Amino acid sequence: MNAGGIRIVLVGTSHPGNIGAAVRAMKNMALSELVLVNPRHFPHPEALARASGAADMLAAVRVVPTLDRDQYFRVVDVREAASRLVAESNTARAAVVFGPERSGLSNEELESAHALIRIPASPAYASLNLAMAVQLVAYELYRARGVACLPAAPLAAPLASTQEMERLYGHIAAVLEEIDFRDRTQSGTHLMGRIRRLLQRAELDQNEVNILRGILTAVQNRRRTAGGAAR
Predict the structure, then answer these.
(1) Are the C-beta atoms of 40 and 65 separated by less than 8 Å?
(2) Which residues fall within 8 angstroms of residue 207, CB to CB, at 6 or more apart?
(3) What is the pTM of this model?
(4) Looking at the chain, which runs of residues are DSSP E strands?
(5) What domains lie within the chain, and their CATH numbers?
(6) Most C-beta atoms within 10 A of its C-beta, which of 8, 112, 148, 161?
(7) Distant-in-sequence, close-in-space partners of 218: CB < 8 Å, separation ≥ 6
(8) Which residues, in sequence order, are CB contacts of 226 under 8 Å at separation 6+?
(9) Distance from C-alpha of 73 to C-alpha of 112, rounded to nearest angstrom
């Protein structure tokens, strides 16, 4: 069962032992790619000790300073999320992102996801250790790769990349400025965030992004034709 298109991403991990435990959990479930975003301590002897049999994976861990943005806010059960991740990884790379142990992902970091994964737990005590959460998600991914099911319908075009979505958001913001369409809320800062969440829920493919940007360009050209240079 190949999981080459799925990576695990840990953001701001504070306890190096959790990194070692996470790679061990991943190796149990045939996941091989771990990315650390700004870890507090890595490399670290405790990470190596907790890796126990997965030192080769620990040596291949990639460390990056920040999390690429890609946004969203839909909540998906872990089993459904695993099935979707496996299907998506057949045509494009996918990642599961975990936040710091104490605080989880920040609001800004949450904007870097297409969906939020919910792991069912008792409401009386729903807190999970980071490595335990990685283990549960890794198990569901392993299970999803092994469950016999109908193949997913092929996409007409690949999902839009982070860069393509950012260009679309920038284009929308520019057109809104040109037509003087502004956030009417008291703080005046929520409009683009809501537009981002709306479009991210739609999971646009590359063709759909191109269509929307073509419409935006047509609006800009019509304004220039009707009234001279756009403001």
Answers:
(1) no
(2) 156, 157
(3) 0.55
(4) 6-11, 34-37, 62-64, 74-77, 94-98, 115-118
(5) 6-146 (3.40.1280.10), 162-227 (1.10.8.590)
(6) 8
(7) none
(8) none
(9) 9
